[in-house]
Write a structure and sequence with these properties.
This protein is of the alpha/beta class. The protein has helices at 11-19, 30-37, 44-55, 70-78, 90-98, 111-118, 148-159, 178-182, 190-200, 205-211, 237-250, 265-269, 279-286, 299-316, 337-349, 361-370, 374-377, 382-394, 399-418; strands at residues 2-6, 23-27, 58-62, 82-87, 105-106, 136-140, 166-170, 213-214, 220-223, 253-257, 290-296, 321-328, 354-358.
Length: 421
Amino acid sequence: MTLLVAVDDGGMLAEALRREGHQVVATSEVASLAAAADDLLLGPDAATLLRAVADADAVVLEIRRDTLTAAVVAACDRAATRIIPLCADAPSIRLAEAFGLEQPLPLPVEAWRLSEVLGAAPARPASAPAPHGPRVIVVWGPAGAPGRSTIAVELAVELARGGRHVGLVDADSHAPSIALALGLADEGPGFAAACRQAERGGLDARELSRVSVPLGGSGVDVLTGLNRPSRWPELSETRVERALSVCREWADFTVVDVAAPLERDEEIVSDLDGPRRNAATLAALRGADLVVAVAGADPVGVARFLRAHSDLRAAVGATPVAVLANRLRPGALGVDARGQVRRTLDRFGGIGDVWFLPLDARAADAALLAARPIAEIAPKSPVTLALRRFVGEAIVTAPAADASRRVSRRSARAERVSGGV
């Protein structure tokens, strides 16, 4: 296995790894690698380091706050190079976990133990299958901009971790925005072209790859939305259904961003068989394996969500719905904001399980300014960490284990309330 050892005074470790049968292409002071990835180190030394990252199967990296940066992780992701974190203390372990790295090893580390870890998983894994998870995930929310598109983007990026291939689809027929938020050209073919090909029977995985746009090296391919809302008739019900059915075979997960309205006003006004503007949203919801329903975590946002929730349940039938309360902050709700939202949704909507995303305006603004996902700009943002927990609890885990865990949590709460031990 080809390795890059980025450990201060790592010469002895590199020599021991060579005796274990590994090829060490370079040894580097940790700060030099971070400086090269952050464009702070220029010239031939930086080029040599980045070339070594691209040539290596794995980077053995000493974790410190000044060495593990988003640029280092991005450089390794682009080259499909595995990071083996070495941590000397508790803060470095928390930092590695915040970036989603695998189980850290203690520093100093024996070469034989490191060799065992290197052989435990393939260095360049192919696209990982979705473990016990839904294939098509639709992100919906009521009117009022509760953060549907932002959550769809962050959800797609989070699901792509671990080598999964994720499709991000902008099926909003009223106000498509994913291409604008990510700095992608919206004049390309995108989802509308995929829908047209699906109607003709010519859509397959190869065609979806052709009309999509890769989001950097994240493993996310974006099917951009309509560049003009007046083109909404192109997203007909039949086209959307067929296109999403092909997406199931194209990607491990497909995240679909849809518009807020669920009304069928056109059917009331006219019984003629014509285009329906909300058909794309309704077709996506009917074809979903999971619906992520986004509510604004403030009095107005919760009220809007509860008014539309019954229409959502009528549209999705028995499809599971996971509720995300977005932009939680105490200023809009006072004391115990989380508890107030939870109790209100439970009392007036019968919604028992709610996940919360905190407000991080600085990270959201920085991501919008850079036209990149929050997870890439601010990997330690509370939003990123909360969404990672949501993915692990509501999407990627086995349903049976997740259900038993929630039952045990409810039982524990009931015992505490009743005074049990």
